[in-house]
Each structure stands twice: as structure tokens, then as C-alpha cells.
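Continuing the series of single-chain predictions for the mutant panel. This is the parent chain; the variants come on the following pages.
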Amino acid sequence: MQQKKRKPRGIRTDGPIVVGQVQPLYLGAPGCQVRTDEKRYTVNSAVPGDRVRVQSLMLRNKPDAARILEVIEGSSHRVEPVCTVVQRCGGCAVQEMAYAQQLVQKHQSLVKHLDGLVDSTCVQEVSGLSSPYGYRTRLLMPAAPRGRQGGVRFGFYGRGTTSLVEASGCPVQHPNTLATVAMVEQALLGTKVTASEAKSDYGWLHGISVRVDPQSGQSELCFSARSEIIPGGEALVSRLSALPGVAGVHLSVSPQRSSYLFEQGYKRLGGAKRTAFHLGGEEFHISPGAFFQTSAEGAELLVDHVLSMMPESFDCLADVYGGVGVFARLSQKRWKRALVIESNDTAVEDLKSYLKNQKKLQIKAISGRVEDKLSDLDRMNPDVVLLDPPRQGCHPRVLSKITELRPAQVLYVACGIEALVRDGERLKEAGYGLNQVRSVDMFPHTTYLEVVADFRLRDPSV
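Parent structure:
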């Protein structure tokens, strides 16, 4: 089987050409690895088992990056990709692998990572989504000039470049995110809004962010721009706020365009300050800048896994790196009191706003870096600690305090598998055993996996 690959735009492709075998999926890697006689290369749109001819991209910041020139012999799990720009976009590293096989490969990689921490029989199969398409409820796109038509267009950065790839039909995005972006593009036609340029003072708009709630159909619309001075002023804001389904319009200001478009700190331009998102039968009113899972179905599965591991009744829960308090709120019938610690001030304010009308709910919300708020954790002396840290894992002082307090259970929600292994080793040394592991394929067609690990104190009397 042979398959020609289109040359990505804006990428140097004058590196060596080699033949190699695509290796099993490695969780968290930037793509798939191709092993040759001399070295390994990282590619997109590969399937473990493929035999491929690749060419180095000669990228200074990614020396192992390569592109597939030809699939010499394809894996039996190779499928035709749904996306027409998958080779250029680079967002979905393994979309050409059958979805069932993606789940198998992720499970096998997870088992290998956890070898030494837990027996493979305790690692359950990956929970997949009902469909690996249309699942992403948040969209983030940089802006670029529209051309002779005027206005701006939105897209994704091409792999290894800052050139925009048009992706109006992106199959992994929820239809409402794409519809909102299309309406915004039309609303900006004929206005004075221009796209910014890196390393230049030209242009105003860096990019756009859209979050949708599939249950209500409402969306949160945010712009990243150079200044608070809006071309078109209130008239443009009114036009954007009136778009169907848009609950609120917000602005994040960054004087210079960068690889990540949005800074902390948002200004409400029109509509609601917070947008309602539904999860676990509850309504969460979330501000721009506060974290909420990108897949609504994946988030439901994740909550189910956490609750399945949590005791039915206990005194105190510590929800650490707790965001807007999702896990604390959705487990409120099980504990008598709870502590939520979160470094994002916006998320804590969202939680406190909810708690104002919940006088009987004993949740204490603390804003600040977790490692600086350990005295609050000490005073609560929790029975169950739920850790949901960023990809780099927990601060060492946090783990030291937890192992000092010795709660009966530590539930670790991980998006970074290597951090989970590192922190899990610390817990193991302190007398905790890994009881079971469950996971959710939060991001199909990527190498990422959301994992829930249930650590139990082996001998509480020691």
C-alpha cells in the first residue's frame, strides 16, 4: 500500500530521507515515533505498525520532527482520515488510526508507564467517547488577514509553523464552536478590525476563543487583542453580543502576539459575565480564564470514575488544584465539609459566587498556589485528598504535606502521565498503594489521556 503525502506549507523539508517502522503509541508524545537504523523521528498521521519513508523537517526547536513522504506498508489499523487538512494542521497526531485501536494503544502505553506502581490487572480499559468527532467544546484559533475581501479569518497553526491552516470544517470541534466562528468572521466583514502580526505593531486582533455548552447551546466568546480600544466600538460589541447563542463577549489584552494568544485577565464587553456549563446534573457558571474540561462527554466519564472510587460517606474532602470546585460540588452528598484550593483567582471567584447562595454547603474556597496554602490543608485534616494538578504534576511540598497528614485515600487525576508516575512513586514510598486506575480518552486522535489513580494508605496505624 502506498500513500502520497502533501508537502506542508512553510516548513523546510530538505533534511535526510530515511525508511523506518512506526513504534507503539507513547502517551504524551508530540506524535508517533518512527525508528530507523540510526535514530528516531516524530511524525504525525502515522499508525503503529506502518513502514514509512520520512524526511526530517530540520526544525531548530524540534530536531526529531519529520513528515511522512510515503506509507510503504500500512498497518491493518490504518483508516482514511476524516479531516482534509490533517497532514498540514498537525492537531490530530493519530487520526489515521482506527479509533478502537487508539484506545488499545493508549491502554498498553498506560500499563507500561505504571509498571512498578501497580499490577496491570488493576489498570482498567480506557473509556472512549461515543464518537471521536465533534467532541471539542472549546476552540482556540489565531487570526490572519482575509485577503482582498477585507476582514479577518481564523484557523490553526500548521505543524512547525505560524502559517494559518483553514479549518472551518474541523471534524473534532463541536458544531456550535465552528458555527460561532463563522458568524464572527461574517460580523467582522466591513469593519476596521485587522489581524495582528508577530514582531510588529500592525493589526489589532490576535485570535478568538469559543466555549460552548452542548446542553444549552450557549457559547462564551473571547477575543485576544492588542489593546482595549475596539475598532468599531460599542456598535461592533452590540453586533457580536447579538449573535445567536452567544451568552457573553469578552476581551483579553496582550500588547504583543505570542504563541499562546490569551493572557490571564479578561474584560467583559457585552452579555453575561459568566456562561453556564452543565456537568453531572449541575450548572456551573464559569468566567473566561477559569478552566473547564474541553470534552463534555469526557468530563462526565471522568466525574463518574472519580465518584466510583470515592467513599460513600466521610468527614472531610480536600479538592487540591480544584478549579471551580467541580469534584467537590459533585460529591457534596458524601462529605460533611470540604476545602478547595486553586491558584486561579477567577476560578475561585466563580466558586465563591456559587457558594453565596448555598449557605448550608460547607465548602471553604482558598485562592493561591497550593504549596503556599498548606496550613489550610493542615487545619482541615482531610480523610480524602483529590489532586488534579496541571500537566507538570504536584509541587514537592504538596506531596510532603499530604504524606505527613496521611489521609486514608488520595485520588490523583492526571493529564500528564510522567508526572503521575513521579508523584505516585513518592506516595508509594510514604506507604500508599495504587488500588486501581481508570482513564478517559478526553482527546481522541491525540496521544493524551486523562487518568484517575486511586491511592490507599496501606497501614493507617503506622
